[in-house]
Amino acid sequence: MNSSPETDAKQEQSKKTLPEKAKDNEGNEETTEKGDKKDEEVTRSMLIDAFEERDWEKAEKISYQLLQQAEKTHTKQSKNYWQAMMEYAEIEKMLHKDKEALELYLSIEKLTDDLFGDNHTEVASVCNNIAMLYYHTFQHKKTLPYFQKALKIWERLYDENDEKVSITRGNIQANTMMAQLEDQMTTEGIITTTKNVCK
């Protein structure tokens, strides 16, 4: 009795060694990985369009989808994952979802240091964003180490009168005053509402 082509294929597969089977699986994984990266490229193109349209709610949905794709395709120590997290955090900040944005930026703080080193504008930008989000949530004392770290980088990279340097110095001064005032009011048991002083 003649065997069917399907039976022959199964028998042939069973004869293969483990390395041969692994090689076949690698080929399938490579095809899947290429497909995932293509999907990621398409999604990123959609995100760029949403940014150009300034449709932040649409951008939020697309960015979250892109983050999920990055988690599937890349490790959480990769620049691709970092970029997806940064984009999502930035959109949450634009939508004034300060708590969500702050959590995202804090979650990639160490990764940013690891990827770019201590003397890079990306590190300063993340620190500055964390500081500003602490400021917007009235946590003035917590802003200070992040503003100070950002300032050290700005001072290394830019002139004394550069806008980044002068604004960050002003933010440190303002938040130092607000933190001292909060400590004083806490001691005295006074509750007050602070005014916007950061730029």
From TrEMBL:
This is Kinesin light chain. It holds the Pfam family TPR_10. It comes from Reticulomyxa filosa. The keyword Lipid biosynthesis does not apply. It comes from the Eukaryota. The keyword Isomerase does not apply. Residues 7-42 have a biased composition (Basic and acidic residues). Residues 1-42 are annotated as: Disordered. Keywords: Repeat, TPR repeat.
